[in-house]
Design goal:
Chain lengths: 430, 430
């Protein structure tokens, strides 16, 4: 199942694939050295866009859902990576408390939580679920479509520690992105490991900080393998004060769109690319694919109709959009049965553990695919990420392609690690 | 492909399987704690014997061959484990020198070396081969049946470092068990990592030291999960001065056989086992399944014919047997198409990366299967080691069985770690 890839053999992405394969030992060493200096996020998923002429991360999720979309063959890798992660953080750990999102009616999400629990159990932890929802005062039993059930329990907080009834965890894993703000119950937990740290949540996190860090990573990495950093990095700009409802900040937005489009146009010219440039406008703190818009001309952001303005104004849990990211759009050339798709890569600790294609039959190659109507196609086993076939011709080999995805996704993970260091409130104070 | 297992539901091995599954989180935590105190061997393979009523390691190899017998699906796990191992030992490493056995005509062995090289390349190292054979003075090109070739190069030693022409490795990995003694060219390499350490080679290593260490491990582990340590540990005894040619030491041998058989008989009685006890007599420093004999009665070791005495006298590379191990025989109840088989489990760093069945159609359940005529059946993907199905009934589920194999094999790896600590000449001097 190698998705159809529209490229001809002179295309830069094939050059990128070839450079990456040739440099495999130095790339892996480079990652080793990065991880000596920086701590990888506990887990992450990265959305990639493959334009044929460039391959770039467009979103890095530090509270990955969708583990249930990985193929069962990925489980052993995920378990092994989880073992490595636990060993480093808290080898004496017996108990892991997972705090999921409050979507107790989204059975896809519940299956994700179930898969995560399974991974950590297999890695040797007692795993239980605690809810941030204050209306959960008794253990709540949630049936799963695959059979079995989840039990979500009320959290119990004392001065220093967070746990459940008869359950004192060493580590607390958030699978809740804190879009609604940082709840007091999670604050001041200095005795326990809280992962990811609170400043990774959308209450604090900004995509622009991530992509600033990614600029640095892409520059270093591109130098290592001898390519133009643009081949793996989308341009972006940001606007700090946008209010779509009140039509504030439209000028800033139009200017930013214009500037990003101009830069992209220049690169397209340099590489002889015939596509029409576009940008993606999205909430700097947004998530779930909400508040995302494709823009091909600066004038478009000045004439937003009420519907679009409403859509852009509100993201998850009612946050008002005010900071906006304007990101170079990377058209997707990947297709599964004619539908546009994009790879999503899952990582745990420093390891790529699996991935799938997000597919959307009703969307164009220049649109956000993370939207109702999407579905997921797990990568088959032969498409594992870490075993390459350097002798195969560029663009012809699934594992080589997936290795390349894994490399670019790990670059985004390195960027997330820089980002979390730079935004760590404790470091800032020190 | 779950091999046929002759057990009925009241059997102790099923109890063992159930105990192991129930205790999975505490078992994994126990391993984590062991690896906090002890360093796992870089790689290892363990031969297991499953008697239905007990499951035990009978041989632990610290220079594993046979990586080519693992199924291709295991590669990603092996690569990930190799990454973890390298990261801990020498994260800045660029170059790995592998020193293989001198069997340049054994194409099975060459395929093993090829697979190992592939694993380490994928993990991000430049890998080259150096030969201990002093007749290798020019790079030697060896064709592989699977296509491709190996290049074995002459070693270059200066005062402090070992390498090849234009190749200065950070780490030297031995895949040569040093049966012929420790070559001077490997001595005094204090600037480079030499793995496994020289005292792991058969020039120094003794099986009896390994099984003494395993006694300690099995006792601790059996207490953890609440079973009789005998269920996972074969009795053994040793004789220090045996010369089969000159018929010295036969009394010691007969006495040891008698004492082990008596202990086994007692256990068989305790558990109502109807089998006839036997022991395996083997060279304490032997390898490759040479010099191995099944004995059912002490009298048998007193009337050895010339052929058997010759067989027992000489093991690999002409070493004379003088120290002998007398190990409780564990009859194998595992069958693949009527042929007797035994699982072999491969580990890298602390992780189980794969395994296969060693199958021998012409051998009985109480015989050594590591002998000409054996063949190997890789474990299929569904038989991965680290993902269990706790809800399945004991004895009915492949993954659960293989998890159990992986646990017992890792116990032998912990024992190897104790053994190498105890026999480390530098610690002894200190």
């Amino acid at each position: 199942m190698i998705p159809h890839l529209i490229t001809s053999s002179g295309d830069p992405v094939l050059e990128l694939e070839q450079r990456i394969l040739e440099a495999q030992p130095s790339i892996e060493r480079w990652f080793r050295l990065e991880w000596m200096e920086h701590t990888p996020p506990f887990y992450s998923s990265v959305d990639l866009r493959n334009a044929g002429f460039k391959l770039a991360p467009v979103d890095t999720n530090l509270y990955p859902g969708g583990f249930n979309n990985l193929s069962p063959e990925m489980m052993p890798l995920a378990v092994q990576a989880a073992m490595a992660a636990i060993e480093k953080i808290c080898p004496e750990a017996k108990n892991l408390l997972v705090i999921p999102e409050n979507h107790t009616r989204n059975t896809f999400y519940l299956e994700n939580v179930h898969t995560l629990m399974r991974i950590f159990r297999q890695a040797g932890l007692n795993v239980r679920l605690g809810s941030l929802d204050e209306t959960v005062t008794e253990p709540m039993h949630l049936k799963l479509p695959s059979g079995g059930e989840l039990v979500v329990e009320p959290l119990i907080r004392n001065k220093l520690r967070l746990g459940l009834k008869d359950f004192d965890p060493c580590t607390i894993l958030l699978n809740n992105d804190l879009s609604g703000g940082i709840p007091p119950i999670l604050q001041g937990l200095h005795e326990q490991y809280l992962l990811p740290p609170l400043h990774a949540g959308w209450a604090v996190r900004r995509k622009s900080k991530h992509f600033h860090a990614y600029d640095d990573v892409a520059k270093k990495f591109a130098k290592l393998i001898g390519v133009d950093p643009w081949m793996l990095n989308p341009y972006f700009a940001q606007c700090g004060k946008v209010n779509f409802h009140e039509r504030h900040g439209e000028d800033c937005l139009a200017e930013a769109v214009d500037s990003v489009l101009a830069k992209v146009r220049k690169k397209y010219k340099e590489y002889g690319i015939q596509e029409k440039p576009f940008v993606i406008v999205k909430a700097d703190a947004g998530t779930y694919g909400m508040g995302v818009m494709t823009v091909r001309d600066p004038s478009e952001v000045k004439d937003l109709n009420r519907k679009t303005r409403n859509k852009m104004s509100v993201v998850k849990e009612g946050m008002e959009v005010s900071e906006v990211l304007i990101q170079e759009g990377v058209p997707s050339v990947e297709r599964l049965q004619e539908a546009v798709c994009e790879p999503v890569v899952y990582m745990m600790d420093r390891y790529v553990v699996g991935g799938f294609y997000r597919v959307h039959a009703d969307r164009g190659p220049d649109e956000n695919l993370n939207a109702p109507g999407m579905h997921f196609v797990p990568l088959a086993f032969e498409e594992q990420f870490n075993v390459t076939h350097p002798e195969a011709a560029p663009g012809t080999n699934g594992p080589n392609r997936f290795y390349m995805y894994g490399v670019i996704a790990r670059l985004a993970m390195v960027a997330a690690s820089y980002e979390l260091e730079r935004t760590d409130p404790e470091t800032e104070l020190g």
